[in-house]
Amino acid sequence: MSTQHRIPPSHLHQFVQAIWLHAGSSAQEAQLVAEHLVAANLAGHDSHGVGMIPSYMNSLAQGFLQLNQHPTVEKDAGAVLTLHANNGFGQVAAYEAMQLGIERAAKLGIAAVGLHHSHHIGRIGHWAEQCAAAGFVSFHFVNVMGDPMVAPYNGSDRRFGTNPFCAIFPRRNTKPLLLDFATSGISFGKTRVAWNKEQQVAPGYLIDHQGKPTTEPGVMHQAPYGSLMPFGLHKGYALATMCEIFGGALSGGRTTHDETLVTSHDAIFNCMTTIIVDPEAFDAPAMQEEAESFLDWVKQSPQSGNEAIQVPGEWEEHNRVARYRDGIPLDNNSWQQICAAALQAGMPQEELAAFRALTQ
Ligand SMILES: NC(=O)c1ccc[n+]([C@@H]2O[C@H](COP(=O)([O-])OP(=O)(O)OC[C@H]3O[C@@H](n4cnc5c(N)ncnc54)[C@H](O)[C@@H]3O)[C@@H](O)[C@H]2O)c1
């Protein structure tokens, strides 16, 4: 079993920022990438946190990820914007896309933003939280261009990505209601975390290269490759399909098929269609009270096991409280891979040693 480190969030943020500055990112880009990745770990989604850095560094070295890019407006139809992300950091492209969409929704009551050809946009909840912080409801359909990992319902090999769906509803005086998940039973990143920790995954999530059920996360990381399964049988598969079409086709981007298959698993490119709505534009003065009445009602259900009933988004909030207090847990394999990526970025040995000394 791999040993675990606990790293204070502010320290990890500085380290990640320094890595990308050494790699050649502008100060703003390094800051946005560090903020996003550390926030994903704080939210409990280690699959989309700082553990992505080695993959991003490989993508940069292989010429896929382009530093210091900004999305270009390809079409401005008023309430609908189409943006080309120019293969730049998703942490910059999605941030700027949400800012543009929020400005439009503030003027018009609703806006849709198609963002395509963006390098990995990470944890989608982060972009929904940006919309909710400005007071808006949002819906996000995302595909992963040309990097199939998930088998269709009744299929036996990988045909599409882990295509996340996300939606957020801001609440008065408390954290927003947040739905944010991959349409595969587990995200690809969770198989990486399990693999790094030398753990099996629960049954029902993976099949091997012959289509047989397995709990071995290595089938997603070394040939011959297996596949993830969609969540919820035909329902998850159907939602994944809509994410592929809305995310990949409607946004002006590409879907996954034989012409778009990538040659490297580090070349993770997302397309996302986002709909941002001003809740004040509805004639619904009791909206907040109605929402709270429902959430209270649901929580009054007698508990069936040891775990309390939560509403979507609460899981992330509990993790934030615990991880701000106790530090961010990181297994040793992931930590060593991130340190190797820091050297790859050009961080001097002495600077790396100073960061390492603070995390033992
Ligand atoms: N960029 C990409 O290409 C990509 C692809 C796939 C996934 N992702 C991201 O990966 C992350 C992890 O996805 P995942 O599928 O592993 O998520 P997950 O299975 O951990 O589900 C998370 C969702 O379930 C809710 N939740 C958790 N426990 C709950 C409970 N007891 N009661 C009610 N709701 C509960 C959470 O609040 C959240 O909305 C997400 O942030 C997603 O956006 C990104």
From TrEMBL:
Please identify the protein, giving its name as recorded. Answer: Uncharacterized oxidoreductase
Record carries keyword Oxidoreductase: yes
Q: Name the Pfam families for this protein.
A: Ldh_2
GO terms assigned for molecular function: oxidoreductase activity
The entry assigns this protein to a family as follows:
Belongs to the LDH2/MDH2 oxidoreductase family.
Record keywords, A-Z: Oxidoreductase
- Entry's Gene3D superfamilies? 1.10.1530.10, Hypothetical oxidoreductase yiak, domain 2
